[in-house]
Design brief:
alpha+beta; HIT family, subunit A; 2 domains; ten-stranded antiparallel sheet; two-stranded antiparallel sheet; 12 strands
Length: 308
């Protein structure tokens, strides 16, 4: 029998519509599940992953590890592929099947963020890497292919056009107003109706023009450009805010995506974490016009999160 030829991933640019697309045929083979898988069928619970798969980074030793980072076995980019150069990793947030991010104690969540920091530092050493995205898909409709709590790190040799556009607009605001847009935004939202919770180190709020129902931004008050320069107090503060927000979403069984965008080439951006619940499905109006209809006002979303 003739061996099937493996088609490699390839980054393609659509200059008219201002976007990059990664054609990744191998991703079709990855497992998909919209239901909780039993422990004995979970890839991350297998003895292979638990004990034998080499860890790129690990907190805890032997069978008592707390957080582990491994290579994604279905990567969309690879250092061996010049057409789609980059790194794709999986952060296994806990060895315990059935526990979600919202279930983890504060110290464990800090360990997850420390794994993000360690791998960001390591991947940024590659001079070809221009952009690092840390993301989490929680729930089937948010794109989660496995039920075991995990997140992913994607490092690419290009910066997506919408990120460039966002950075450009922030720079234009800085030139016009003499201040960082996000620093000004923090001051405004800290005393407004979209404020959710916060402390002296970080703030959580529902953004004014939320694309997703119940969308939340978590932002450090200090102007830092990426996760690696956060200090211990800031990490602990943001970890606690993540826990509080995801607890509310998990209680209502609302799937969500979490994003941490980081442009390696822009040292003046303001780092933040974006949590995007995926309760609603975009229909023809949204996908055709790119005009988003959000049925939940951000002010209403903030009240939802503030309620005990």
């Amino acid at each position: 029998m003739k061996k099937e030829k493996l088609i490699q991933s390839e980054v393609r640019e659509d200059k008219i519509h201002d976007r990059f697309v990664i054609i990744a045929p191998g991703r079709s083979k990855r497992p998909r599940s919209h239901e909780k898988k039993k422990k004995d069928t979970c890839v991350f619970c297998s003895r292979e992953v638990q004990f034998k798969v080499p860890a790129l980074y690990q907190i805890g030793k032997g069978k008592n590890w707390l957080v582990k980072v491994i290579k994604n076995i279905y990567p969309v980019v690879s250092v061996d592929n010049p057409k789609a150069y980059g790194y794709h990793e999986v952060v296994i947030e806990t060895r315990e099947h059935g526990k979600e991010m919202s279930d983890l104690p504060a110290d464990h969540l800090i360990a997850v963020m420390e794994a993000y920091i360690a791998r960001t530092k390591e991947l940024a050493k590659d001079k070809k890497i221009k952009y690092i995205l840390i993301f989490k898909n929680q729930g089937g409709s948010a794109g989660a292919s496995l039920a075991h709590a995990h997140s992913q790190i994607f490092a690419a040799s290009f910066v997506p056009p919408h990120i460039i556009d966002k950075l450009t607009k922030a720079q234009e605001y800085r030139i016009e107003h003499g201040n960082c847009y996000y620093c000004d935004l923090l001051k405004k939202e800290a005393r407004g109706p979209r404020f959710i919770m916060g402390d002296e180190y970080a703030l959580a709020f529902a953004p004014y023009a939320s694309i997703y129902a119940y969308e939340v931004w978590i932002m450090p008050k200090k102007h830092v450009d990426n996760i690696t320069v956060l200090d211990r107090d800031e990490i602990a503060s943001m970890a606690l805010l993540i826990k509080q927000i995801t607890m509310k979403l998990d209680k209502e069984e609302i799937p969500y995506n979490m994003f941490l965008h980081q442009s390696i080439t822009d040292k003046d951006e303001h780092f933040y974490i974006r949590i995007c619940p995926r309760r609603d499905i975009w229909a023809g109006l949204e996908t055709g016009s790119r005009l988003i209809v959000n049925p939940v006002a951000p002010e209403e979303a903030a009240v939802f999160y503030r309620k005990k």
